Amino acid sequence: MRKPFVAGNWKMHGSKAMVISLASDLQAGLGSIKGVDVAVCPPAAYIDLVKTALGEGFVQLGAQNIANEPGQGAFTGEVSVDMVKDLGCRYVIVGHSERRTLFGETDLDVARKTALVLDAGLTPILCVGETLAQREAEETEAVVAAQIRAVLNQVGVVAFENVVVAYEPVWAIGTGKTASPEQAQAVHAFIRGLVAEQDEAIAARLIIQYGGSVKPDNAAVLFSQPDIDGGLIGGASLNAVDFLAICNAAGDACSE
Ligand code: PGA
């Protein structure tokens, strides 16, 4: 039985006042939520502040990105995996479609960053997903397979014991268009099958989140699909009431 995992990706949103208020509201509301792991991924500049505002609770911290270089060095403007670990992060989002499309990250870059995160002892949230043009050209499986296999080739299947995958169809991110539960389930099952080709037990334990316009009103039906193990939440994670409702839906789906 996989425990669902819901992570909030705050992207480049917030201010000191806003993140303190959001973290405090989450901390206050999460007490009653059971059966789900929860993390938030604030902008790097606010990770420390959010950690203080969250205090000792069960909400974990994640970073949205790391530098493609290990250790320290002359990489102006970059933030290393060791730095986000030092700040208390347990997770790092890698390969988000915004990084792939806006910042030119290739499958190989994403594989390398995944390895850096794993080497640091943190858990990558590996994002994969197709664009609308790719879906319409019936390339969804080929695109997702290439994205997953690039990482499998780099880190090996055993490392997937410590990887979370997030399937995020690019056309559903921030658009209000959600994949139907059946569309999402089909790709989740396909991803699990790719990993199962190499190790069935690891595939059976792999957490695969769905991301792309998850809201309180569609979360339950998505999370009730057999291969959907929670979500990576963008817009709705900036609203404590909505994010808490989505966490609740994941916990309920697990206990059904
Ligand atoms: P969204 O973003 O929930 O706003 O669609 C999801 C994501 O980009 O992780």
What would your notes on this structure say?
The structure is a single chain. With 256 residues, the chain is α/β, with parallel strands linked by helices. The chain has one domain (5-100, 107-255): Alpha-Beta Barrel (TIM Barrel). An eight-stranded parallel β-barrel has the order 1-2-3-4-5-6-7-8, surrounded by six helices. The chain has eleven helices and eight strands. The chain is globular, with a radius of gyration of 17 Å. α1 packs parallel to α2 (47-54) and α1 (16-29) packs parallel to α11. The structure holds 2-phosphoglycolic acid.
This entry's quaternary arrangement is single chain
Instruction: Assign the CATH class.
Output: Alpha Beta
Structural class: alpha/beta
Rg measurement, Å: 17 Å
* CATH fold node name: TIM Barrel
Shape by Cα distribution: globular
Spell out which ligands are present. Answer: 2-phosphoglycolic acid
Low-pLDDT sequence parts: none
Q: How are helices and strands ordered from N to C? A: EHEHEHEHHEHHEHHEHEH
**CATH homologous superfamily descriptor:** Aldolase class I
CATH architectural grouping: Alpha-Beta Barrel
User: What's the total count of β strands?
Assistant: 8
Structural domains: how many: 1
Residues in helix, %: 40-55%
Main sheet specs: 8 strands, parallel, barrel
Terminal-residue CA separation: 12 Å
How many H/I helices?
A: 11
- Average pLDDT taken over every residue: 96
Strand order of the largest sheet: 1-2-3-4-5-6-7-8
Portion of residues in beta strands equals 15-25%
